[in-house]
Amino acid sequence: MPKLIIDRQIVDNTATLLRNAEDGAFAAVPAQGLVIVPLAQYLAQKAELNARGDVGVWFAPDDEPELLGADAIRLPLIAIEFPAFTDGRGFSIGRLLRERYGFTGELRAFGDVFKDTLNYLTRCGFNAFVVRDDKDIVEALKGLDDFTESYQSSVAQPMPLFRRRQAG
Amino acid sequence: MYVYDELDQKIVDQRVAQFRDQTRRYLAGELTEEEFRPLRLQNGLYIQRHAPMLRVAVPYGELASRQVRVLAKIARTYDRDYGHFTTRQNLQYNWPKLEDVPQILAELAMVQMHAIQTSGNCIRNTTTDQFSGVAHDEIVDPRPWCEIIREWSTFHPEFAHLPRKFKIAVNGAVEDRAAILVHDIGINVIKNDAGQVGFQIYVGGGLGRTPIIGSLIKPWLEPMHLLSYLDAVLRVYNRYGRRDNKYKARIKILVKAMTPEAFGAKVEQEWVHLKDGPMTLTQGEIDRVSKFFTAPAYESFAGDDAGFVAARQDNKGFGRWVERNVFAHKQPGYACVTLSLKHPGVAPGDVSGDQLDAIADLADKYSLGELRASHEQNLILPYVKQRDLLALWEELKALKLASPTVGLLTDIVCCPGGDFCSLANAKSIPIALAIQERFDNLDYLYDLGEIDLNMSGCMNACGHHHVGNIGILGVDKNGSEWYQVSLGGRQGVGASIGKVIGPSFAQDEMPEVIEKIINVFVAAREGEEPFIDVFDRIGMEPFKTRVYAGKPNVRAPKEVADA
To answer: In this protein, which residues make up the domain named Nitrite/sulphite reductase 4Fe-4S (chain B) (predicted)?
Structure first.
């Protein structure tokens, strides 16, 4: 069973991530188990998928969180793909889902994910990480603590340092 | 200047530890070259022609003498005993070993310095007026705002991997010495009629292969909203800037494609959500940062120092240096002194370890231990008493730091070029040196007046050739190095992009070409008219005619696509 990090624990990754067929057709949703569908599929099949309660949604970097909007709070899981770790669009998507759309479920990063991006990801609201399978997941976990202090407001620490300095 | 507290220090120390670990994993094969590259770039580390190149941040150009001594020690210990000041007020080492870089960073951290975000697709070092805080024409000291932006941009989690590099400049004076119109974001700090401080925000300026002057998208922004507004601009860029083509990835391309009006509207839409949020600046924070930049305890002088005024009259060499290298101070009896890093025969911006140590001593002796780096690749002593100027000049001459040529033709702004940089199409330093050699007569140079000559070894335009009155760009044509000349660029309030004069020239033609251009200028000049005014008046044609007259039909091979 593949692994992932959720809330600093290494656990089994039981989810099935669906991708469209090559012709763009939506894949069939398995009857049972945690499944993650593309945003477009969710929007098209929202009524039946919402009824299940174990369906998550995944975003490509150019998917717009505005399209999901208020439906975000219904979902148990949202995953965001990082095709390359240098593509920072997913950072903005994460923050928007957390800070603007009130998403409180599992926010998962997958794709080109390894030690050196986990700190930024955490601060943008991610709490789950599918570390690339050729990278050491135990080593990656340590990346969460690369920095213990930061200047900006973020999901992990909404109060920027300048407000905490004054309070302290 | 700003002094770290234990929290600022902790962030820099943790960065050193992180980079030590990343370097170790790279050398152990746990990080591939492709993975390590963006990570090391965000720490200012390039792999160049001969060795890694490390770019050390000098936030908004402010340096203390104790920092300069550490820069000297690093140059001596880990490099070939010199450093190079860049056009972004930073310092580069051209010869460090990769294995030594974590230790270099640790030594820098001990004097509150680092190499964070000096390269890579992230928010770079914020730059400003080299005379901020002391300029006679200053409206608002931009440094507290630069520091507030430095802290906001350091390890910003959302904007760590932007489509492309991102440069912010801040100006607070009447004359714009920070070139804000050619930055991704340019901030003008102004006062309204009621005397309140606010910002004008320009976006989408830049040089590179598509030079564009920035557009004003926010004519008045209240100070407390600075960071939430910057967050909104960066978020729009991070989400919608092009990532499919690195040559189209700067914010200027997005602003142009959307139009500045539509881009500004999109920012406003985003800002509605962020405005008045946690990033809203508090008066307490503005005060905390501002108090690091209050005026020093100046000695009180009634006016100009009589001895200085007399020496300026009596001593021609001193008078000339004062005219070119001394800038008017806001405090009576004081002066801002530019130390020229353009000594003939030395690459523009280069400075040796011994010179750095001597400069640190001079800063302690004459300028309250403080220095500035300028984007014209010179250093500044900001707090010199007029009565000390003559003695300082004598000391600078002995150190070869007193070329009285600031702002003149031979004060060439120049990137490292093909001698060092792996991006360059052509060498730049030998051309700069050849031009300096051709124009070595100080009387003549002085008579020519202010002429900005800027040179870049490739389209990345690190030498800001587009805004030089005379711009030189190195281009590659079928593997050989050629030089394209442009005229009419300028920086500052009326910033404009120079126009290309015609087909490129071979390296050995360049001093001759510049001389012909200067001769056209001299012939057409009325009185003390500056070069740029003459160009505006007579246009390109006379220059073109002279430069190409009688030129044998030896043309460069067909220009490559990007030239």
So the answer is: 119-273, 411-547
Asked whether the domain spanning B413-548 has the same topology as the one spanning B306-398, the reply is no
Pick the CATH number of B6-109 from 3.90.480.20, 1.10.10.60, 3.40.50.1820, 3.30.450.40: 3.90.480.20
Interface of A with B in 106-145 (CB under 8 A): 114, 116, 119-121, 123-124, 136, 139
**For the segment B207-238, what is each residue's pLDDT rounded down to a tens digit?**
888 889 999 999 999 999 999 999 999 999 99
pLDDT of residue B562: 37
What angle is formed at CA B338 by the lines to CA B334 and CA B341, rounded to 5 degrees? 160
**CA closest to A89 among chain B residues:** B239
Q: Do B288 and A162 touch (CB under 8 A)?
A: yes
- Give the closest-approach CA distance of B140 to chain A in angstroms: 22
Write the DSSP symbol of residue B166: B
Contact B11 A147 (CB under 8 A): yes
Helix (H, G, I), strand (E, B) or coil at B382: strand
pLDDT of residue B49 exceeding 80, the answer is: no
For residue B333, pLDDT beyond 90? yes
State how far the alpha carbon of B375 is from the alpha carbons of B132, B179, B243, B409, B474, in Å: 13, 9, 29, 16, 20
Give me the residue spans of the domains in chain A: 3-167
Query: Yes or no: is domain B134-291 CATH 3.40.1790.10?
Result: no
Which of the listed CATH numbers 3.40.1350, 3.30.450, 3.40.50, 3.40.390 matches domain A3-167? Answer: 3.40.50
pTM of the predicted model, to two decimals? 0.91
The runs of H, that is alpha helices, within B195-292 are 226-240, 251-258, 260-274, 283-290
Instruction: Tell me the ipTM for this assembly.
Output: 0.97
Cβ-defined contact of A160 to B278 (cutoff 8 Å)? yes
For chain A, percent of residues with pLDDT exceeding 90: 94
Domain ranges of chain B: 6-109, 134-291, 306-398, 413-548
Which pLDDT band holds residue B48 (cuts at 50, 70, 90)?
Answer: low
